[in-house]
Specification:
The chain has 106 residues and is an alpha+beta fold. It has an 8-stranded antiparallel β-barrel with strand order 1-2-3-4-5-6-7-8. The radius of gyration is 21 Å and the shape is globular. It starts with a helix and ends with a strand.
Length: 106
Amino acid sequence: MRLFSQTLKPASVLLALALFISTPIGCGDKHKSLDGVYQSGGGPINLTIKDHKATINIGGETKTYDYKVEGNKLIVVNPQEGNLEFTINDDGTLTSPFGTLSKSPT
């Protein structure tokens, strides 16, 4: 019985460690909390985050891209023209080269 308990103990530690590593930090999906339509205050840009895609409308021209979140940065991936980076502010607004975008109420 002693051999079984010595073998079981390291196995249970490894299992617990594997579960901890595979569990996302923080509950909830960061991408889901970003979902919505963001608009600049009177500016020509809006950004829609939905279904893990970013749709940008600048002056009537609309394009959809992939995006990623790194820390407090929302990075719209644009291989042709270069990525567009937004800072995710504590109040939920996004700061961009075009100014600050606020999430529209739904």
